[in-house]
Specification:
By secondary structure, the chain is α+β, with helices and mostly antiparallel strands. The protein has helices spanning 27-40, 52-59, 140-145, 149-155, 164-171, 175-184, 221-235, and strands spanning 4-7, 14-17, 42-45, 82-85, 88-89, 92-93, 114-123, 126-127, 130-131, 135-139, 159-162, 190-193, 195-197, 204-206, 213-216, 241-244, 251-255, 259-263, 274-281. The protein is built from seven helices and 19 strands. The radius of gyration is 18 Å and the shape is globular.
């Protein structure tokens, strides 16, 4: 079957069918998927019973994968795999159990932010025949394009402080996040453009989130706080979003430059959820 792309959201999102990711794809099929990814910003594949090795092989075709060997993931064979899960073993969480509680973009606190994230569903909570734990995505390229010209002019050239320490403060900062923080040796403050230029397609993207953006360089504290709040709220307006309802064996990939995401914690702690993520390393933020 040939690869097919089915858009599923007005601003972002597409389902990819006709590709068996358990096997290496030929160059033409991969090129079609890659083009769809940079056009739709979030793509997903249903019914892909992948191994960790399959996921690593496929996502590594998009670029170098980040390797993290975390103390709480001693059971994971491959350092390219990051575990997102509420499951406990011997009284301790086996992965990041509260990932995505705020709107954010992965790796914003790094000098070289993440380029792409890919999340694979191994176990998905369900109730009354419907799977729970949806993930919301927002297109910050569409959000930028929809800004009034006066706002585009106002924020042109501004830079923002992205802080993992602020993220810890906002989320309570459990041991899992502290483990991540110490492993990646994140700076206490990293400055990135408020408007990033996408390194592949050249689209301008708002780079401001409730999860990581601490301040805007050069602005008084009150003005900085108000502008961050205004832009962060604008980014997640319904017309810029897509909500993914997970199924077991889904693989969902998103562009960390042009999107934000937030998890939906609508399932009880007793319902197991297990996801494996791979992450493509990005370059320095362009502006």
């Amino acid at each position: 079957m040939a690869v097919q792309v089915k858009p599923c959201g007005s601003a972002l999102g597409a389902e990819i069918t006709g590709a068996d990711l358990t096997r290496p794809l030929d160059a033409a099929a991969f090129a079609q998927i890659r083009a769809a990814f940079y056009q739709h910003e979030v793509i997903y594949f249903r019914g892909q019973a992948l191994s960790d090795e399959d996921q690593i092989r496929f996502t590594a075709r998009f670029g170098e994968l980040r390797r993290l060997k975390l103390a709480m993931q001693a059971h994971v064979e491959h350092p390219e795999i990051f575990v997102v899960s509420n499951i406990k073993k011997d009284g301790k969480h086996i992965g990041s159990y509260d990932a995505g509680s705020l709107w954010h973009t992965d790796g914003a606190y790094l000098v070289k932010p993440h380029a792409i994230s890919a999340l694979r569903a191994l176990e998905v909570p369900a109730e009354n025949g419907r799977t729970l734990g949806d993930t919301n995505f927002a297109s910050v390229s569409a959000a930028y394009e929809a800004l009034p010209n006066a706002m585009k002019k106002r924020i042109e050239g501004l830079q923002a402080v992205q802080s993992f320490e602020q993220h810890l403060a906002k989320t309570g900062g459990g041991g899992v996040k502290k483990d991540i923080y110490s492993t990646v040796k994140a700076a206490s403050e990293v400055v990135h453009p408020l408007v990033r230029v996408h390194p592949v397609n050249g689209r301008k993207c708002l780079y401001v989130t409730e999860g990581y953006t601490a301040s805007i360089v050069g602005l008084p504290e009150a003005e900085s706080r108000d502008l961050i709040a205004e832009l962060a709220l604008h980014c997640v307006r319904p017309e810029f979003t897509y909500r993914h309802n997970w199924q077991q064996h889904d693989l969902v990939m998103w562009d960390d430059c042009s999107t934000q995401h937030k998890a939906t914690f609508d399932y009880p702690a007793s319902s197991p959820r297990l996801m494996h993520r791979t992450t493509v390393v990005g370059g320095a933020a362009l502006h």
